[in-house]
């Protein structure tokens, strides 16, 4: 039997969801090392995560998703042969993530990405569409879920894509860099849930930052 992966959960101010997410991950990966990449939260995220049995790597300052997750992975990966990445707001739906690991271990791909079977919230799809276009231009593939944070990566893929790109450009850059290195992507539809930002001022601000980070990833890769 393959050893269970290390699971790194990206979180910022997720105190109300991280406990449920970690409980689901513990059920799904009973022997895995659970690590929370805490992007300098100013709520109780770190305390709730420790109470849930996870190791916590807290960024010394706000570093953005890519920076905080890079810090956590580099500090805890060790000799692990598989890395699972996920967002801290998945709640109970995180129990489905072993399907990504199964797809990689069975040889269907070198890194697996979850597509959301149901769309919840979101804006007009501009950041999503640009990410998909950028990946097609830079890597020649057009994924369904280019900015999904739910991923399983074979160790060789992890070594090829670290450090992750800054901020919300992390997933787009990861897909481009891994594909250019010859690794195969497979996407798996899962019935996942997450915190939807919606068409609000805060939601549009979040997606604008996301778009700008993806634009920087595209511009940095020729």
List the helices and strands and how they pair.
Elements: E1 6-11, H1 18-28, E2 33-38, H2 45-51, E3 55-58, H3 64-76, E4 82-87, H4 98-105, E5 111-116, H5 126-139, E6 151-154, H6 155-161, H7 170-180, E7 185-190, H8 201-220
Parallel strand pairs: 1-2, 1-4, 2-3, 5-7
Antiparallel strand pairs: 4-6, 5-6
CATH C-level label = Alpha Beta
Question: The CATH topology, please?
Answer: Spore Coat Polysaccharide Biosynthesis Protein SpsA, Chain A
Gyration radius from CA atoms, angstroms: 16 Å
Question: How much β-strand is present in the residues?
Answer: 15-25%
Order of helices and strands: EHEHEHEHEHEHHEH
Mean pLDDT: 93
Give me the secondary-structure category. Answer: alpha/beta
Q: How far is the N terminus from the C terminus?
A: 40 Å
> Quick one: how many beta strands?
7
Helix content: 40-55%
If classified by CATH, what would the architecture be?
A: Alpha-Beta Complex
- Poorly predicted residue ranges: none
Shape descriptor reads globular
| Number of helical segments with 4 or more residues | 8
Widest β-sheet, arrangement of strands = 3-2-1-4-6-5-7
